[in-house]
Amino acid sequence: MKKIRCAVYTRKSSEEGLDQDFNSLDAQREACAAYIASQKHEGWVLLPASYDDGGLSGGNMNRPALQALLADVDEGLVDQIVVYKIDRLTRSLADFARLVDRLDLRNASFVSVTQSFNTATSMGRLTLNVLLSFAQFEREVTAERIRDKIAASKKKGMWMGGLVPLGYRASGRTLEIEEEETKTIRKLFELYLELGTVVAVKDRADQLGLMTRKRTTKTGKAFGGKLFDVSHLHAILTNPIYCGKIRHKKQIHDGLHPAIVDLATWKDVQHHLAGNAPYERNKGTRATAPSPLQGKLFDDTGDRLVPSHCNKKGRRYRYYVSSRLIKPTPKDQDNGLGTPTRTDGWRLPAAALETELSASINRHLTNTGAVGLFGKKDADIATIDRIDRRFAQMPASPCANTLALLKSCRVLPGEISIELDDEALADHLEVLKVQINPDILQTTLPFTRRRRGVEAKLIVGHHRDGSPTSSKTSSQASPIPSSRDLVLIKNIRAAHRWYKLVQRGTTFSEIARCENTSVNTVQRVIPLAFLAPDIVRDILRGQQPVSLTSDWLLRQTLPSDFEDQRALIQSLT
């Protein structure tokens, strides 16, 4: 009898009661263990590891114990996940669909000890979807109630938790003044009214040695106690909490806590801040275009290329500029005089660079194909078919979402080196990260800059004559075999697709009618669905014997035993 290794997963949304000797998680685990014991005759065995998520919502998959459990499933250590109720696993239909696909890849499954249904039948699947829909509905209604409660409480001026602002300490549903810190807050407001800009306030605050509050998390990690940065100062100066009010979204209500600065001073600061805002000074020219390459671009010295812009005749021009050209480092200063000695660096037009990189990534993935994506790692024919279709449907024109697949990009003289994010790529293609061939993640593209008057035209991934060139992977070779039999691969895909339809009760005649082919063709092709996995893998990689063609295979009576199949194909060599 085959042994079925069972892992119990438990979850509770709130931390209430978790400190008890026997809490909700213990009760769930005990019920699941008893159910597993009742299935001992089926070979069920309880694994000793505990997967408990206490105080975590089921609305997402970001739970430590669940991620550890799924990692064990991916490693082939778990055959069955046992939960008390389905909503302990997830309350999201979308997450559940991805979870089921992930379990299917490892031939694993799950069972709920209090909800009995068979997902192999249409009625069982309907029951499961109904239960999950109600679980998701309950979560969303609960979230709405909490949001409404917070809105009503803030309307009454209550403090509803969060990071306590500098100058205050929490006291129930209100705030009390922290006398020492109030001096810092009042000084910052005074400095702004005196100096007129937040940058100037930062410089003076640094000279005065004004610091942020030292804080310690529940885990004991300390942070804070540093000089203020510009964004922190701006957040303090615009926070209505310091004039005795409390903000909820776009509304401001009278608070129950005492004010640190008077209302007239706070309004005066807001008036000056609004007048200094760039969208007030240059109305109609404020940028709404994002910079998707921010934080991902580096030059040949390792310096980061940061977004920059200029406005000319009411039009906004975006660039990516080496940060040393914007804010020189101490080593770039001339004898402490403040003038940069280094003027070398990159200044690249943002829109052109984003367009060229997006198109180059599309070309790289399309040229790679599903076979190059998985490399030596096995993947079922249905997944390969889906990935190839996805690549075939990739737009020829650049797509903004493509740049989200980029992890980092290094601009060098004559070439651009890019690295794709394996996690983002796996999520985009709906495959496991461990399935992706790491060789395709890094590639180098030719890069030139041509001057046309005052403009610079960027050319990425093309030869000097303008013709497109394939990218070079880390192995310096195309990941796609040149000897792939596309007709044979097409028939194998069709065989798997048709066999699934047969399993669902579709007849050969119905398949032939839908596929616009003959019943005889369907009958001849379907046996290809039973080819040994290693034979299919070799065919997908173009490593099969030259004589192994689609016509030859369709004329054979394919043995059901994999060893016999290998011997038959070996006779061709």
Would you give an account of this structure?
This protein has 573 residues and is α/β, with parallel strands linked by helices. It has 20 helices and 20 strands. It has helices spanning 24-38, 64-74, 86-89, 93-105, 122-155, 179-195, 198-208, 230-237, 263-276, 278-281, 323-326, 350-374, 381-392, 422-429, 486-503, 508-515, 519-525, 533-541, 550-555, 562-570, and strands spanning 4-12, 44-46, 51-54, 80-83, 109-112, 168-171, 174-177, 214-216, 222-224, 245-248, 251-254, 297-299, 305-312, 315-322, 347-349, 406-412, 415-420, 442-452, 455-460, 472-473. The strands form six sheets. Strands 12, 16, 17, 18, 19 and 20 form a six-stranded mixed β-sheet that branches. A hairpin with a 2-residue loop joins strand 6 (168-171) and strand 7. Helix 6 crosses helix 7. The longest helix has 34 residues, at 122-155.
